[in-house]
Q: What sequence folds into this?
């Protein structure tokens, strides 16, 4: 299994868990769990593959991600009541999935002939769109809108770290490690310690 | 006209009626009716064609669906005040369109070289995404989120029925009949008699 | 630079400003501004390119639009507090971007072998989907839903004007001028003078 495929499958698993947790918050049945798990799990990578005109889309080429998402959804359906805060689990798993999916997006984009800016966008899009679709369809405020939390910012920094690492140690695992560590580190720092960039504050117009 | 095309056009017509009814609830002008009718009518099939890399997308190859959606929208604009409950019509027409669109998705996917799991997903995606886009853009709670109603579940069961029927009587109309009857039957049973699967109920963590 | 590319870049710039203004209303950080600017700026054109199977998508072929969107987002982040009503700016810039993007969509679609109805749809889709995605992700009521305002209607009329102009003066700039003037003129008239089409009003069913 190639690195890109491994990363895709890992992010599929973790995003599927977050999708199923969102379904549990909406009190759906087990098929609803599978629907949200699959939507969240393959959403970002599907957008990436459509944009890059990869044919076929990764989960059409090999349906393993669908099986993973289904398994994760069923697992959560029967065990979610065991955890103390489903929202907390959702947010932390989302952070892990975001980090891995950014790395997956960067890895796929780098294997194709596209510019540096496009690689960065593909990392961010692969990382953020699955969760975004989950939140929009589940009628929740998208995590990208959470004021003063590092989310898109963490994804951009992680993709940037991968690009810098690729200059220093191309073709090695370090590109992926740098990406995941940066994205997850910044997101975790934001959740735990309130790390943030200055946010826009409307001020009265100058006199 | 092939079976897949007939199914696409039938689901386009009925989904277009639901899109126009959604526009009537938002009190838009006639062009707004056409916009929502077209979005709902071709949304699911467009996603399916993009995912399967069918080129061109069905309504670009032949603009008949756009004409059907426009006609349906104009019709609803001038007659919707005649019906007693527009929401009730919307929900029942949506059930019919869902059933036909699942069959259309399965039919197209089966004509391409993709695995069984992908056929099932294409049926469900074709069936649900038009209505999902209608509800998200119209700022209404998506029907897929309606707690305790069979919706995605009906679509999955219908696509599954088509796959089983195809083992028994491949290449015949029975595949389509099984799909439509199962999807619509389950959805109707859910609306009329409250048929449902057990839904997730958060319980306190075990001691 | 071709006409279609010039129009794409102009609409990218103005839509990016509206995306950044939406981010300012959500009080995001500068990376959030860039995210919303890019989403709004390339959303409509990306959908158009995916539907028409243009490969590669315009901002993958040449990353200039991403640079434009980033610059616009940073500019707005540091200057938005200087304007008196950010919502007013957002709405008027959106009107300008809508007009230019409809022209860009029509221009690209006319260069491909598609029917008249499809050209019209591509104009409207290119014009409206960037703003629609901005509003859906930012959790605001989509402008297409604003009751009694010409929005989709202005886009359809503009695309229609381009088609008529192309019959009279094909291959000239007048097609584009007619499209932009019609779209922006109707939208502006709607905002300033309340121009509108009759909207649907539910009436009691006839006795």
A:
């Amino acid at each position: 299994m190639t690195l890109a495929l491994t990363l895709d499958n890992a992010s599929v698993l973790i995003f599927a868990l977050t999708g199923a947790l969102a379904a549990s918050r909406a009190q759906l049945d087990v098929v609803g769990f599978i629907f949200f798990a699959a939507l969240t799990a393959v959403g970002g990578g599907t957008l990436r593959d459509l944009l890059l005109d990869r044919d076929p889309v990764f989960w059409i080429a090999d349906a393993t991600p669908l099986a993973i998402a289904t398994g994760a959804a069923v697992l959560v359906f029967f065990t979610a009541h065991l955890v103390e805060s489903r929202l907390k689990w959702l947010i932390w798993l989302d952070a892990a999935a975001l980090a891995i999916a950014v790395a997956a997006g960067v890895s796929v984009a780098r294997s194709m002939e596209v510019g540096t800016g496009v690689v960065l966008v593909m990392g961010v899009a692969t990382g953020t769109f699955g969760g975004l679709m989950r939140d929009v369809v589940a009628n929740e405020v998208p995590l990208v809108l959470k004021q003063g939390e590092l989310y898109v910012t963490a994804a951009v920094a992680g993709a940037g770290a991968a690009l810098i690492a690729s200059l220093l140690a191309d073709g090695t695992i370090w590109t992926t490690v740098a990406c995941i560590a940066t994205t997850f580190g910044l997101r975790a720092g934001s959740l735990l310690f309130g790390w943030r960039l200055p946010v826009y504050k409307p001020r009265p117009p100058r006199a």
In short: The mean pLDDT of chain C is 92. The CA atoms of residues 34 and 73 of chain C lie 5 Å apart.
